[in-house]
Amino acid sequence: RLAPSAALVASVSQGAQQQELYDTRALQKLDSAHYMHPFTDHQELAAKGARVMVRGEGIYLWDSEGKKILDGMSGLWCVNVGYGRTSISEAVYRQMETLPFYNSFFNTTNVPAVRLAALLVELSPPQFNHVFFTGSGSEGNDTNLRMVRRYWELMGCPERQTIISRHNAYHGSTVAGSSLGGMGGMHAQGGLPVPGIVHIGQPNYVEAGRGMTEDQFGLAAAGWLEAKILELGADKVAAFIGEPVQGAGGVIIPPATYWPEIQRICDQYGVLLIADEVICGFGRLGAWFGSELMGIRPDLITFAKGVTSGYVPLGGVLVGDRVADVLIEKGGDFNHGFTYSGHPVACAAALENIRILLDERLVEQVAQSTGPYLKERFASLADHPLVGYADSCGFVAGLNLVRKKGAVVHDCEAFKPEQGVGMICRGYMFGNGMIMRAVGDRMIIAPPLVMTKAQIDEMIGKIRFCLDATLADLQ
Ligand code: PLP
């Protein structure tokens, strides 16, 4: 172990030069020998070999075999402005040459962080005048947990500690993030959730709304929050957290009545409202923030992903006046922060990314033009024999694969989970140059916001082709 082998040095320098030709097998072998991936079964990975991504341009990726892939998931819900934006790499390069790093602890700051904070305040709803930066969305939600508890201590209500979240929510992978989230698979590993976090049902009409209209169900699902607050005692509840549209849980789009009723309940009981906009922010739903679309006034907004389009890691919390004023006026030191809070390079990337979103009017485009077009084209997939229902909001969409269609969504007959139909379909997508994610038998997309109408047509064509292949496979 004194020196790396010549072959390893050669493969590393090949990566550094970004050559077009890669030895896929050798990379896969090194990958499975040494790289522990997030959310991955490593025995399966070793058997199949990882797909090695090497390049991106616009909405397309290329793998190490030279295969072109349409990225229907924007990387991981984040590459909002698409791949290959040289102006972002140039902004990053310039910042690295000028000041690659300095921290924001102990009364120091840096120029990109100041400018970005001011710009985010400008873009966000009026109750926001402060920003706390983190390195990721998970750290943003950890920050939320600490901030809301500190807020209630300073308000003289230290017993208001409990945060209410929802089953099947995703709020990150740190201990607080995964506890705030409601993913059973995550809670089953390592004694989660930590105390002081409880979960109510998600507003999933298809799963739980039988016998009700969507509007009736929205009110009923919001009522679960009120019931939980009354069960715990309002004087014990610090905050409610939710994604405007649940992303990783399977693109669960709530009925229109849901969020306004949640807001009413939070107001009535004085409970803080946290909108986790790690996915929904920065144009994903056709608004700068999904909260605006849902008609709510959150006290805190978590952001990450789209703030830099994933080019460099950055996350944070928009801190509303209700919380910020108390922390600032009464709080003294808030003993919380990260080495990379307000990282100048990440903030420079975010500034350029937001300039692109503004200059190219991408948020308006999703709201007024490509979003409605995607809605119409995606809905047309519902005529496919495998599709029970298909819905979308801005640039997120999902469809459910069903064994038998029904007259109403609740009458569709599901496949047996052990058939793994979603994974079969995902396999056909991958094999045919299309990235679409499977959450059980729900197939979801969140394409880059730069996707054109012609590219939407291309994507819908690929999805239909792969649905046909899946159907043929099952027969
Ligand atoms: N919150 C939501 C809604 C997310 O979708 C994610 C990531 O997918 C996170 C938080 C965690 O963000 P990160 O992976 O940057 O920690």
Automatic annotation (TrEMBL):
Cofactor entry: pyridoxal 5'-phosphate
Domain of life: Bacteria
Isomerase listed as a keyword: no
Keywords, ordered alphabetically: Aminotransferase, Pyridoxal phosphate, Transferase
One GO CC annotation: cytosol
PROSITE patterns reported for this sequence: AA_TRANSFER_CLASS_3 (PS00600)
Pfam families, alphabetized: Aminotran_3 (PF00202)
Stretches assigned to coiled coil: none
GO molecular function: pyridoxal phosphate binding; transaminase activity
PANTHER family: AMINOTRANSFERASE, AMINOTRANSFERASE CLASS-III
Family affiliation: Belongs to the class-III pyridoxal-phosphate-dependent aminotransferase family.
Protein name according to UniProt: Aspartate aminotransferase family protein
Highest classification ranks of the organism: Bacteria, Pseudomonadati, Pseudomonadota, Betaproteobacteria, Burkholderiales
